[in-house]
Amino acid sequence: MAEPEKTAASAGEFGCIEAVCHDLLYRPELVKLGAGDDGAVYVSPPGMDQVISTDTMVEGIHFTAETMDAADVGWKLCTANFSDMAAMGAEPAQFVISAALPKTLPLSWLKACYEGIRAACRRYRVNLLGGDMTGSRQGVVLTGTVVGMVPSGTAVPRSGAREGDLLVLTGPVGDSAAGLEAIFRGRAREFPELVSRHRRPVPRVEAGAVLREAGIRALDDITDGLASESHEVATASGQDLILEKDRIPLSEEARRAGEAFGIDPLHWAFTGGEDYALLGAGPEEAVRRAAEQIPLTVIGRVAGPGGRVWLEEGGRLSLLPRCGYDHFKEETP
Amino acid sequence: MAEPEKTAASAGEFGCIEAVCHDLLYRPELVKLGAGDDGAVYVSPPGMDQVISTDTMVEGIHFTAETMDAADVGWKLCTANFSDMAAMGAEPAQFVISAALPKTLPLSWLKACYEGIRAACRRYRVNLLGGDMTGSRQGVVLTGTVVGMVPSGTAVPRSGAREGDLLVLTGPVGDSAAGLEAIFRGRAREFPELVSRHRRPVPRVEAGAVLREAGIRALDDITDGLASESHEVATASGQDLILEKDRIPLSEEARRAGEAFGIDPLHWAFTGGEDYALLGAGPEEAVRRAAEQIPLTVIGRVAGPGGRVWLEEGGRLSLLPRCGYDHFKEETP
User: Cα angle vertex B108, ends B104, B114, to 5°?
Assistant: First the structure.
């Protein structure tokens, strides 16, 4: 008879921790004491500011067994967190994870999830400095907290956009939402790139550093859709933004999915989120310097004092509603 | 007609964030950019190591509406995290919180919870640097992550106990579990101190610094009970520990509750947890230096190489089982 599959309950808290606690350090030169004690000890190099952010993924809200496998979930938890560093022009360096797990969770799921986490930490040279494991009443809840670093005084806030700045995106938006739509419609195989953008999105850590060094002065990552994020920049900067509808970068596959499903792919771009492309604002010279190193699309400009976002199409302006995804309200994402 | 009470769903994600985002900085000199951007930016003073830890509280597991009110939950989330800093001899400095909230949660609960958080942050001079708010399928899940600091090279691990060291506790253990028992039995009013220890436990931040400066070389905080934590020190240090049963400090009220409920209060001390007293090991001179500044109880000694924990009673030794609370196994706490 086959042994019954191990679960979080049968492995116990220490068994769960033991199952995932290996190969944790990908930038050991910064670590004095790794996971396993009450706290982990690390150093911050001189001349650097520290940047901190935290991000949670909830089963049934951010993912289901249908939309993502365990390793995808682990990878995406890292992306969501590391992307916040990229959006400050910082590089992620230290990471801790809290996992609330239902008793029935297969231990194999947990292990696979941490392989996804490990893959992302290896790729971006981030140390896993431990965490917390506890029970959950329903579904998996994972919280990551990342600490990054940025040369002193150079972190790029959302609030730095100034009149005359150009607005840029580091890549297409809407792919992740289009991929999710393809999964829901049982047509994942036809749109592998979109599905991959949903399941294995990439934090633009290197691009964030390039944009910072080039002199981009406002940055935000696309987590809740271009509509919501452009409003964040507009509000924080106290500036009106004008987005040119025809310039918003859409992937070929998103256009194709839009046609196949009868959905305007711009809907995904504006309200879909989880693309993790970076939205930046900066003077033209800064944009030119950055564009020598990374692909950039100019999508509009900063029009002057205000706080609204306008959409320009055929020379006509209309107000863009702030219709990003809200985790509590019952809106369609 | 009275307006219906606002909930997480009716306030929306931004409404929830707005309701709690005020009075966040209690050590502003370390902060360059507070909550509200993709990441918060802070500085770490030269000559300090950084210490990080994360801790989660799950409704239905760590608390219920019966055992704790919202402000208690917020306070205790801070204590659990700050105590991990104390147990490294570090002081907490920066804090971020991720909150997964059910749609029906009253906004008033969330506000009260953050008042508890604010009270702890004010008391221990810790900055609230933001966080994440998202939905939950069942119950509140709160994760705090704390970053602290300690003079370079002086963090106190669990692994530092050496043969001949004395074992010390900074205060009584078992009170929190006894308080919980009193709540369950509907006898909270008879045991106000114990109940307060359960609902408003105190992280021993100042004591941690005193012990570090005095030369205590192993530290752990009592989160899962003295049995579990002493095993942590024994295992990490590779040393056998001997605890003297009669020296284990119990409060008068815990003894009284033990009599009233027919439970040996040592049961609470060994397996109850959430006391947040510090367990330390160090040479006699270090203990004496520390005891000049804070109350300390010597409860035993480090016997030599090994990794087991012995209980001494009337000159006889017996092995102490590692029977602390396990979040997945079905044991009585």
Answer: 110
